[in-house]
Design goal:
Structural class: alpha+beta
CATH architecture of the largest domain: Alpha-Beta Barrel
Strand content: 15-25%
Helix content: 25-40%
CATH class of the largest domain: Alpha Beta
Order of helices and strands: HHHEHHEHHEEEEEEEE
Largest sheet: 6 strands, antiparallel
Number of helices: 7
Radius of gyration: 18 Å
CATH superfamily of the largest domain: Glycosidases
């Protein structure tokens, strides 16, 4: 695996690196989920551009990260807003590739530019964000349980100009996932056509029903929901 900070295609043609640290991915992800103002259309265009840039076998294993020993901590990059941070983690762990968690991110460790980002791990649980730690565990368990989140196809279902709310899907022949995200400071109802009525909340097990051929999902500010249905 190579540590390359920009476009890495020349290194990924089969005769050099098997994978690289995907800094272009982390930069676009953090730009969207921070307060930069990037809308859903530009985010989807950026992510889709990365996916068509590299061979599929690379996209399936590429080293996706939110931060590293050379960058400010993800908590710093999102303005110390834990709800924004959770959106980043949801996307990371429901996207293709190999997700990387930099030590301490899971307990809310902060840090600015190098060397502050390399500070020692906080081992005192009383000083850790244990709710955030449990959140990471929950998303990791979901990814490990459902192969579709690792190797299924990926597609944006909703990503519009001037709108920071998005919907995307992961799909294989067995399971269909949809992820709904409200990357705004206001509560919202996000709607999208859904023909079937067999959706389940992936984190709570609660059935989620459509109405008149559309799914209507109520989301808190910087909220998300992960739905799935079986295709077998």
């Amino acid at each position: 695996m190579g540590e390359v900070w920009n476009d890495s295609l020349r290194w990924l043609l089969g005769d050099q690196f098997d994978s690289v640290m995907n800094y272009p991915f982390s930069n676009k992800l953090l730009e969207f989920f921070s307060d930069s103002g990037m809308d859903g259309f530009d985010f989807a265009t950026s992510i889709s551009g990365l996916l068509i840039r590299y061979p599929q076998q690379t996209n399936e294993v590429i080293f996706n990260l939110l931060c590293s020993h050379d960058t400010p901590r993800v908590m710093n990059r999102v303005g110390h807003n834990k709800r924004r941070l959770k959106l980043c983690v949801v996307f990371l762990l429901t996207f293709m590739g190999t997700p990387c968690i930099f030590y301490g991110d899971e307990i809310g460790l902060t840090g600015g530019e190098d060397p502050d980002c390399r500070k020692c791990m906080e081992w005192d649980e009383a000083k850790q964000d244990r709710e955030l730690f449990d959140f990471y565990k929950l998303l990791i368990a979901l990814r490990r349980k459902h192969e579709v989140l690792v190797s299924g196809s990926f597609r944006f279902l909703r990503a519009e100009h001037g709108d920071r709310r998005i919907i995307y899907e992961r799909l294989n022949h067995r399971v269909h996932f949809t992820v709904w995200m409200n990357n705004t400071e206001n509560k919202t109802i996000l709607s999208h056509p859904m023909e079937t009525n067999d959706w389940v909340d992936a984190l709570t097990g609660e059935p989620v029903r459509t109405k008149d051929g559309r799914m209507h999902i109520q989301l808190e500010e910087f909220g998300y929901r992960i739905l799935y249905r079986s295709l077998q």
